[in-house]
Amino acid sequence: MPEYLHPGVYVEETQPGVKPIAGVATSIDAATLGALAVELRRAMRTHVPNWTDSNESDPGITLVEVFAFLAESLLFCADQIPERARAATWRAAAALAALGHDRAASGERLKRPLFFAGRLLDAATLTAEQDYHREKLRRHNRAVFGYGVVSGLAVRVEPAAGAGGSHVVIEPGYAIDRNGEEVSIPCVARVHPPVQGDTAFVTLRFWDHPCPLPAATGGLPSGMPAIEEASVIGVNPEVIAPAFALARLVRSGGRWQVDPNFVTPRVSQNRP
Fold first, then answer.
1. CB 269: neighbour CB atoms within 10 A?
2. If residue 182 lies in a helix (H) or strand (E), which one and from where to where?
3. 47 — phi, psi (to 5°)?
């Protein structure tokens, strides 16, 4: 899960190399299990407010049980997977996640709801109307501009205040990602360079972030489910679509610096 940095800006970091898996208990007492259940119900009320049927016959409960079974199996097998295969699995999972967020193919026709007097405006209809306008804007951006930096977003490495080290600094700016989403960083962002490895990419992508609405926002009640259109800055060993790279970092003589030979993609260079 990306970590909060500024309003509308989050950071995700993927460190290369072997990561030890922390030990976990093989059994859970009733109090802990009850607390987990309460947290799960709270999260479901926030992200899926329409799911009100929580009895054992509901298909949603079956899906949760299936995911729990698969997660338990993966945790059991984690130590038995070689590091090389684990890295390949991570790349495959990231690629599948990116495919899951791909927008409709350009050859697919756009459809919008037809409104008429007496039609019930339910949540699905209003969502379909939103999806139509958002997908039309994405297609426009991909066809006219391509993807990359529109303005700003320069990257540099500067010494960190205090006991040595350095920060990767990203200037404010505007961009379009590979899906045609408009991504904005409204203020200077500072992130830590990788701890391991000698190369890394500073990446940027769009993120639809489900979140409860804060108090007194647009006159809506506090806690109402909402979607924050956020940007995610990544410091990763690879670039996974729909993100694109703002810069490439290299470590030389124990110090990180921006690779001057890396060409940052810009919208004028990536038109289809």
1. 12
2. strand 182-185
3. -90, -30
